[in-house]
Amino acid sequence: MSLDNAAQMTDPREEALERAMARYQYSGDALIEVLHAAQQLYGYLSAPLLRKIARRLMLPPSRVLGVATFYHLFRFAPAQHHSAVVCLGTACYAAGGTDLMATLRRQDGDGGWTIEAGRCVGSCGLAPIVIYDGKPMSKVTRAQLEARIKETHDSGNTAPDAGR
Amino acid sequence: MTAETLRQTRDAELERRKGIKNRIACCTVAGCESAGSGEVRAALEREAAAQGRAGEVEVRGTGCMGWCSRGPLVRCSSNDTIYAEVTPADAPALVSGDAGRFEGRALTTEHPFYAGQRRLILRNSGHADPERIADYIAQGGYQGLLKAVTAMTPPDIVAEVKRSRLRGRGGAGYPTGLKWELVARHPSTVSYVVCNADEGDPGAFMNRSVLEGDPHRVLEGMAIAGRAAGAEQGYIYARGESPLAIERIRTAIEQARREGLLGSRIFDSNFQFQIDLRIGAGAYVCGEETALIKSIEGKRGQPAPRPPYPPESGLWGHPTLINNVETFANIPAIIENGGDWFASIGTASSPGTKVFAVAGRVQRTGLVEVPIGTTLRTILSDICGGVPEGYEFKAAQTGGPAGGCIPAPFLDLPMDYDSLTRIGTMMGSGGLIVMDTSTCMVDVARFFMEFCMDESCGKCIPCRAGTVQMHSILERITRGEGSEADFWMLEELSALLREASLCGLGMAAPNPVLSTMRHFRGEYEAHVREHHCPAGHCPIHASEEVHS
Amino acid sequence: MSVRTLEVDGKMITALEGQTIFSAAWDSGIHIPRLCHLGGLSDVGACRLCLVEIEGQKRLQPSCMTKVAEDMVVRTNTPALRAHRRLIVELLLAERNHVCSVCVLNGACELQDLAAQLGVDHVRLRPQYPKLEVDLSHDRFGLDHNRCILCTRCVRVCDEVEGAHTWDVAGRGKNSRVITDLGEPWGESASCTSCGKCVQVCPTGALFSKGKTVADMRKDRGFLRYIVTAREKKLWIA
Amino acid sequence: MPAKPKLATVWLGGCSGCHMSFLDLDERLIELAALADVCYSPIADVKHFPEGVDITLVEGAVANTDHLRDIRTIRGRTKILVAFGDCAVTGNVTALRNLYGLDEVLHRAYNELSITGTTPSLEGIVPRLLDRVLRVQDVVAVDHFLPGCPPSAEAIYEFVATLLGGETPSREGRRFGA
After folding, report:
1. Which of B199, B436, C181, C185 has the most C-beta neighbours closer than 10 Å?
2. Do D55 and D7 contact (CB within 8 A), yes or no?
3. Strand locations in B211-334, DSSP E?
4. Does domain B353-435 have CATH number 3.10.20.600?
5. Do B297 and A89 touch (CB under 8 A)?
6. Domains of chain C by range and CATH?
7. Residue A4: predicted pLDDT
8. Rounded CA gap, B404 and B410, in Å?
9. Homologous superfamily of domain range D6-95+129-164
10. Averaged pLDDT score across all residues of chain D
11. A50 to C180: CB separation less than 8 angstroms, yes or no
């Protein structure tokens, strides 16, 4: 009986990935689309996942890793609990984006944060912008950001729903 | 869809609107979304229901209305007024038509910000809901495609585009008609149309706003291109970083397919055309057309030497017509109104309008569409209200990391392709960033070089290793550790990158350095000789004897 | 096949239609420098050393990827081209840790030869000193990233001649690295056939045979012509 | 007859291999002595670097505070300064520690691999090592470069003789490493 149970307990994500690949007829040309789908399902691209994609699309593993690592949106490790993307487009840079970045880095004493520099998010009129746990903050000052970080810490540092 | 059903759809939508007294359009594009337009829209919808006016007041989303720094923006059709900085608390007043509480926040078309603009690309903003194809059709959408399919031959279409003298809005300004002709004349039986929506310049969001605000206009332009070039398949290559734009394109493609505006037997003809969406994954270099092609093919987005150019050998080796979003968005009106009409707008060598994303130190920032050839002064002073009190204009930066700066003496320069190139910058895709005297131009050059270094694909040596060296020299200079030798090393590296790089990214990477060295040489010299940053920006410490 | 006549560095030469400028020039004794090109492999035009001036063309063109044309006038060795080539070699030498004195290929390295030939007696740019790995996990071969110039000859020979596609390039820009399979140590690569072709085509000491000491290694690329010609002419098919 | 030009050689952060190669000139050393007056060299017993030197060959990279002080003095007293050998020209093996940083290298050498297990403090006894090894050109202006590890005796003779003859040595054919 336990064998039957194991068979039924397949990860639904596997099926979803299979469907995504089937949608593109398992064509190697669709590698980037498939990587997007895989990351959306699993959160990041692990080595076994990449190996499986390579096999299904009949591509050399080195080609798959080569493509995946060329593009900045693909992640190869699980995301942290909290994320902050500081826009460092020209307008945000000029409006003090780097200072906000430094503020975030300073606060990330215990790790647990994915802090990234973003390219222009297209809200230059509201510079500087920080995407904090998936939600945009506009015309951000250092004090505002520090207050927000404190809020997050005080609320127990739990994983937020936003941005997932 | 047939000509008849297109007309019926349009009439039905216009008829439906007659019963509506006020159409309230909420900007739903990235800038206003960041400022909370989603909550405003929800409050408006609730309020319309609560006041029992659901039938006469209609709440819709719409495209970018321009003045992003005062978002969220909401437009009421009843009095043709745009309201700024709207909060959910404003909803009752907007629904009931009580304009009293909007002192200083009500903007009419006479406001200098709008009066100075000429909106062709953005004409549907504030008027149409990007998520409804009926809205686009009601605004006269898909009439260009109808004409192209039912009343014109492919050579007619190419001739019309050539007559318009439209130049590619992606940056370099290559004549669009010539490009189309190359693909149309190619004997290959398979060809492709590609829309380059990989707008990645930091400080540029024109294309993204067009896709978010009026996606059908781009689809229509592409379908017309498909008809002209004999292509049956199109791709939109969009930035992975723009989820809203991706969503809007997906919806629009879906709607157009359902209505038979994409697919087979379009307008009962033999013309068939499909569009698929491809999503980039964070590589600026994919805006370069050969890299974009590699990326659509699922490969590393590394450029290939040209020739062969894509119109000859592009996607999977087939002739490929690549234009950017704004170029395609110009096409429907050109086909509908004729090339001569278009050529009468703007300047003789650069007809039409250009959308600029204005950011930085000016009163009003956002999207501005003006006839090409409008002076920088008109855009910045008249439309954007000039530099705020207490600040002094220093330079405007155009063309992003591939461009350069325009210093104060050139404020009366007409903003067209050739004038900008002459003073060492470029139109680019339309980013326009205003800097005041507290901005250090050496640091600006360093910032853009860092961008190019991070975005270099790594294939050719001049760009891969040259951007690293140029960046490290600029960094030394901003730290006050530069030497005289650094000047000629920067110049020698610039020459190498310009002349020997494989693609446009490397060739253009030195532009911000050369441009700032040309107009602000004194600032570089102050850093090197006096260990002093005139803008007071660079943290230069007392120099040690050896910097290792 | 028809013949084309063109002028290269003031000398009239003949070439076959479809031949590249690079190969026609070499056939006539005009040796244009290169690092990424290797006869028998496809061309990528990446190293930019073989750029030439073609009369009537605004841009410099990679001679390894540009076909000859009738009456073409080509210059391969102008002062501007020499200056560009020197700077490219300087960029390479500053990019990673090319310490010739302690390299297995000392004395037979294409990068070292090129520096000598072009008069690069020092590097004006700052060395970057990146910290890079040496992979000695393979039984017979080693990979020293310090000496890799990313010419991708290994990637191409493995894909096009051996047919294994063990190698590729991961990352981008200054963070580009050659990798085997999913980036695991070379010795653990499941696809590698240990044929050693990559080692032989590598222009520097980045790929080497184990057991060789400083200045001890010499590379032999004769096999390429042999295999590629045989394949092209189907010589080995009964 | 005018005085013979003054030739000096110095040894900074290098292995002295370039000087060994210099000694390999063998009997040509006598020819060289006829052309120039060797006024300062690690192979001659002279305590202070003299003034008014015409040509100085500098072996080695700049690795410690003494090197830093000396190379500046030498530059000030020399007409034609030659970076002599790969360590002076490129940093070479001497600069390999720049990949790891000074602390990591010292820790490895004294704490991990030596029997004492501690990094000795010899402040004031031996010169302090610089955080990063520098090429000669990073500190002072260099007039000519003679790469090689070491440059061969033939290359040294030809190079120095050319300079003594008032000519500029050619740059082509010089070789890093072998």
Report:
1. B199
2. yes
3. 233-238, 274-279, 320-324
4. yes
5. no
6. 3-77 (3.10.20.740), 83-232 (3.30.70.20)
7. 52
8. 13
9. NADH:ubiquinone oxidoreductase-like, 20kDa subunit (3.40.50.700)
10. 94
11. no
